[in-house]
TrEMBL record:
Signal peptide coordinates: 1-27
Record protein name field: Uncharacterized protein
Assigned keywords, A-Z: Membrane, Signal, Transmembrane, Transmembrane helix
Keyword Transmembrane helix applies: yes
Transmembrane region(s): 312-337
Species classification: Bacteria, Pseudomonadati, Pseudomonadota, Alphaproteobacteria, Hyphomicrobiales
């Protein structure tokens, strides 16, 4: 019969094993997510896998919502994501996405959006960004923005210092682009896109605050005030030269790095993907992470950002819950080891006690044997 103390230890061991088996999948995923927190591509992959497993229809709904919002690029990103994760989609829905993408890439549509970007200086896709960048490369767009905001500054009126700083930096980078035969073009496009995102309210609050502080540092206000006092878009060459003199290149490192990362995102996933990243970002580190995500995931990036939000770029509030899963698993493992130790000790002690009792009985029997022999009658 098994002693009661061993029964209790055995029960504790069985309970710890059962609880550990239940906790293991959650703890394993929590550990993998925490380990991937510095790798946005791996972090988003783990989370997207979970989303797809828990709600396979989520991608199909995302496609439908994107088409309804007139965003075939996002719908196509969802199709790419579904294909990579082996999620079956309705063929009719896939054809609708293909048709919408083809219509958006039609020459007349592209030309119209290019002209819109060139004239208005606002971009939301590749074609309109091309027009906006063309306007900035011919210095028209940056001069327009710098003169407008610079005159607000001279008059003591409310000034968007971020747009002012970006326009001033843009003029300097445009000159470098020409000198380097296009080598600085990604930075030029990145500055333009950040400026456009600011104009249309698609720049994250935290990122806008950081960029505003950085832009303030790159502009020599007195020199700029003198330049815009006599500047005009009708004299682009003279005005651009005067405004560039107000640019402090030694202070522009962080802003240029931001523009470069935005340019990397644009090259991999397009203008809308870059705008999505700028909307979610709270600082330049988020944009750098988004650039790494775009380089790893390509066409899936927009769908990933749509599904996960800022959680695609870094570990957010869920870190505490993940740590709790790991702590629970660790405590369960400790309980299992403690129960195993207790059961081993008690089983060993029971075995030793039983051996002692057996030897004691043998000794008692041996001691009683001569007396039995002496007391026995003679034959």
């Amino acid at each position: 019969m098994i002693p009661r103390r061993i029964n209790r230890a055995l029960a504790g061991l069985a309970f710890s094993a059962a609880l550990g088996a239940a906790l293991w999948p959650h703890a394993h995923r929590a550990g993998a997510v925490i380990a991937a927190q510095e790798d946005p591509a791996q972090l988003s992959e783990l989370q997207i896998t979970s989303v797809v497993q828990n709600d396979p229809a989520r991608i199909a709904r995302g496609i439908a919502d994107a088409l309804a919002a007139g965003d075939p690029d996002l719908a196509d990103s969802f199709v790419t994501l579904a294909r990579d994760h082996h999620v079956a989609l309705d063929e009719a829905q896939v054809r609708r996405v293909a048709d919408a993408v083809a219509a958006e890439k039609a020459p007349t549509s592209v030309a119209k959006r290019f002209a819109t970007g060139l004239v208005t200086g606002q971009a939301d896709d590749v074609a309109s960004l091309s027009g906006t960048v063309a306007g900035d490369l011919f210095v028209f767009g940056d001069i327009r923005d710098a003169v407008r905001e610079g005159k607000h500054l001279v008059m003591g009126e409310e000034t968007d210092r971020l747009v002012l700083g970006l326009a001033t930096a843009g003029l300097a980078v445009t000159a470098a682009t020409y000198v380097s035969a296009g080598g600085a073009a990604p930075v030029r496009a990145g500055l333009t896109l950040v400026k456009d995102a600011r104009k249309v309210g698609r720049l994250g609050e935290g990122l806008a605050a950081w960029a505003g502080r950085s832009a303030r540092e790159v502009v020599d206000a007195p020199v700029l005030q003198q330049a815009v006092a006599t500047g005009s878009v009708l004299r682009p060459g003279e005005t651009a030269t005067a405004i560039r003199a107000a640019f402090r290149a030694e202070k522009a490192g962080a802003l240029v790095r931001l523009a470069k990362d935005v340019g990397r995102i644009t090259e991999k996933v397009g203008t809308r993907g870059a705008l999505d990243s700028l909307k979610l970002a709270e600082g330049p580190k988020d944009i750098a992470r988004a650039a790494r995500l775009a380089e790893a995931k390509g066409g899936q990036t927009r769908a990933i950002l749509k599904l996960l939000g800022r959680g695609a770029l870094l570990l957010t509030a869920g870190a505490f819950n993940l740590a709790l899963w790991l702590f629970g698993a660790l405590m369960t493992l400790f309980g299992f080891v403690a129960s195993l130790k207790s059961m081993t000790e008690r089983a060993t002690q029971a075995w030793l006690d039983r051996g002692k009792r057996r030897r004691l009985r043998q000794m008692q029997v041996a001691a009683a044997s001569p007396e039995l022999v002496a007391a026995a009658p003679c034959g």
